Amino acid sequence: MSMALCRGDVECMDPEERTQRQLEGLQSTLNRAFKNVPFYRNRFQERGIDVASIESLEDLARLPFTERRHLSDHYPYGLFAVPLRDIVRIHTAPGSTALNPTVSGYTRGDLALWKEMVARALGASGVTASDILQIHLDTGLANWARDYKDGAESMEAGVVPLTFLPLEKQLMVLRDYKTSVLITTPSAALQLVRVLFESEVNPNALNLETLVLVGETADDKTRAYLEERLHVKTWVHYGLSEVPGPALAFECESKQGLHVSEDHFYPEIVNPLTGDPLGEGEEGELILTSLTTRAFPLLRFRTGDRARFLPGACPHGCTLRRLAWLPGRTDRLVVLRGVKLHHRQVLTLLERALGFEPSHCRFSIRRRRGADFLEVRLGVDDRIFSDEIKGLERWVRDLGVELTQELGVPVAIQLQEKASFASPEGEAGLEDRRGEDEEAG
Known about the structure:
By secondary structure, the chain is of the alpha/beta class. It is about 30% helix and about 25% strand.
């Protein structure tokens, strides 16, 4: 087995022993949630569920799902399971379908476990104390950047923490600071390649060896392209952009699926329409239950991510369960630069920024010169129109900046005649038009 991955006994643990530890963690989590979180206690009681009757991991299927809307509905601290005096860090992220953001909290012990989990994923990706690690993510994944910084520093690697610089400046840091490991999204990595070659910087001038791709799925074609152009090895990490963070699953040297951190999260694959558990190899929705988190327990959280469990043993000896993270989603969310968006969420923020509900608007994910962004098209009416062109341009620019700050991803505003819209707002939802842009380019 790879020495980089085998940081302790957990990765090599006998599956039966791990199952027993998972059950103990599950029972502890259920008892804490029932005792301290009214949302969970009320749901159990309404369904006549006695937490003491959950005697096996299979019994989890009797519990109701937790959904993203529940996180926003109980803003800010309604899902915390410990007193606020025990919270040492609070993370917020935009709510996927509501105006309220999602808020997650961490005890000191939670942060220590998360640091250990991120370090394990980085170690499996070949990162060592001799590396210099650079983090390049959008503001919507700023929480992940902190976790990656802490995990890498615990390994005594050098870290260039998240800094919101233009891509050209990121490239300068990458070259001048002799970065050997870059953590970024697949879409940002593709954009980096474009800027690199436009700037006539030879990849051999870089010290970059390892590219850790997060936030989005990356197909084999994309990974091969990045590896060839940047002369690197690519590794994929899986996490949740809302809660609780990155590196829940990671690749080892075999590159045959992602190992789930089963000592901290119990995974299920279910039919997204019926909620019924699916067997090994069947494609469905990934469900996660936390086993060690004290401050913010998650019980059967519906990730919306498509996945399937992989059969057989890992060639490198890791006994943590493997899954294939599949493209597409089981819900209506669209992933942009690692951040999940819903058209109702964008519309709600737009209404708040404008002070009125726009009668005609469209939202789409676009790609321009390799850079992905959210395009918001607004129909011009008397509330928006201005004879002063400069004033109108400034208003459009300011609106784009406000939405960018709220969502944590780039937003571009386009004004159009209302007659150019086939129908009023809402029917098209949030369209992913990156494929059209690539064909046009």
